[in-house]
Amino acid sequence: MNTLPNVLRSALPSGDGPGVLLRAMARLEKSPRADRLADVLRGAVRALPLGDARDVLHGRWLGHPLHPALVQFPIGAWLSAAVLDLVPGQRRAARLLVGAGLVGAVPAAISGWVDWAELRRPQMRVGLVHGAANITGVICYACSLTARCRGRHLRGRAWGFCGAGAIAAGGAIGGHLAYRQAAGANHAEQVAALVPPGWHRLIALDELSPGRPRRIPLGEVTVVAVRTGDDTVRVLAERCTHMGGPLADGSVVDGCLVCPWHGSTFRLEDGWNVTGPATSPQPAFETRITDGQVQARLAP
Ligand code: FES
Fold first, then answer.
1. Which positions ≥6 away from 58 have C-beta within 8 Å?
2. Which residue of 64, 119, 163, 279 sits 20 to 30 Å from the alpha carbon of 54, by its own alpha carbon?
3. 37 and 174 share a domain?
4. How many structural domains are present in the chain?
5. Whose CA is nearest to atom 2 of ligand 1?
6. Which residues span the domain enclosing 199?
7. Given the CA of residue 262, which atom of ligand 1 is nearest to it?
8. Which of ligand 1's atoms lies nearest the C-alpha of 244?
9. Where are the beta strands (DSSP E) in the chain?
10. What is the mean pLDDT of each run of 10 residues along the chain (300 residues)?
């Protein structure tokens, strides 16, 4: 017996394939309709004179994106306001929470847009709709606060519930962006699990030109080796932790390897992400030269 209503059943995946929601997201990922707008916005966000604050907003200091942490505050405040709206005599507290959520939404939105500007095209498309839903939510809550301040509490509540709906939709789309499209994830997390322990022969030392990154397969992964001295070779995992960019196509600058896609800079010595947008360091390998052969093993 079918216990789910038809509308819900069509939204969920079934044995026949993806449901309405997943199909809609797949269409959105492929739709070029808003690409021009996205390009303009990306240019504007990248041109913001943020300096070192840009890495702070990416969450490099935190080791993962800052945006999901910052959104907790406005969402928490607005959800609490929605609960208080259902309780008699809590108008003042609800109004305060709506206002606090609006203040908290500012840094959350800025960090989100800074991350968004470094995404790949299909992720940008989904991210744009995620942002649009959240902006709609913020506008609803601004209207809600205005109405509450004017003593129109019923209208204020109605705007608040509309805002909650928009924010919930934005959150669901954000979930697709983070978990389905892996925006913000560490794209080298699996390296430690795929490289067998112990030393592995990579290449003859003579085959490496000083300062020129070289892509080398190592079992299930690829690594990038850079000869930095007569007998010194540095080895990192080759796919960038930010979005999987090919570090072997990057450039070596001041003892660091710069990703060709978005410019994350990784210290060759230990993989530390000196600058973002990467928030995770690059897996680094210890190296030794034996009989003219470069060997590497994953650094602890
Ligand atoms: S893929 Fe974005 S910085 Fe490397």
1. 65, 66, 111, 114, 115, 276, 277, 279
2. 163
3. yes
4. 2
5. 262
6. 191-298
7. 3
8. 1
9. 200-204, 214-218, 221-227, 233-237, 251-253, 256-258, 265-267, 273-275, 284-290, 293-298
10. 60 68 90 95 96 95 95 97 93 97 97 96 96 97 97 96 96 94 94 93 93 94 92 95 96 96 96 95 96 91
